[in-house]
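Q: Could you fold this chain for me?
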Amino acid sequence: MFQKRGSFVQKRRRRGDSLAPQLVVLVLVFFVSVIGIAAVLHFTSGSSNAANMAVQPTPLPDPGTVEVILPIANIQPGSGFQPQMFKRDRKPEEVVGPEVVRSFDELKGMYAKGVLVANRLINRDFLTTLQPVNALTASIPPGYRAIAIPVDATSSVEGWAQAGVRVDVVWVTEFGGRNTAAVVAHNAKVLSANRRTEAQRGVSKSKQGGQGGDEGIPPTVTLLLSVQDAMKVRLAALHGKLGLVLRGAEDTGSVAISGAFNESSLYQQENNNVRAPTRHITVVRVKDPKTGREEILKFERGQRVKE
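A: Sure. Below is the predicted structure, expressed as structure tokens.
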């Protein structure tokens, strides 16, 4: 009997010893499963949050604003347009007129006629349906012409007559034996200086004592003129010397100048200010003894003055 109980106890111990490794494995599997489930739940919650952020409704636009497109960078004259060159933005209604481009569809088949400045509203006046041959032809409006004239440091105002500025064209010639100056074109726009347009203006500064080839002192400038002024400037260049007079940025009107100036004009103001010399006139009243008529006689320096 005791032998049977002992053998039973031994068998039970052996079975417990065989189950111990299985329990350890089960516990490890349980913990691994728990960790895996926690990780899956973590990443699932993160992706759901990202999805929720992505599907969040966009905020309503501010009232009183209009959607427009703006150039990301400067667009040169003559360039075609691609969608990646623009960005969308909203501007107040009061600054967005009917001449402002609002969507890229309005730019299809169009070309830049002028420089489209980055982050600025696009005006339809700076667009054209004709592809310009170059940047210069894109800047010439109908009824105007581009004409080039030679200049130096003096006639180009030390090189300040660069592309984009406004100038008057002064003609100096000899007329009637006197040097004469006259303005033959008012408020002319400089399109290019030494083949450098407004969009391509260099940042290099002029060198001291530079010659005509120096970028700071252009040898030639191209002016935007009406057809009539262009003919006057070309004819004047054959019979005298042309010079440019720089205008202020806000001075765009014409100047009322009549006729030409010569050397006598330099002294005209001084002559007007010269006072007439003082005259010492003696007045004598005499009476004719025969007729009794009184007569007034005037004498200056002992001589009678007859008026």
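A (continued): Residues 1-44 form one domain.
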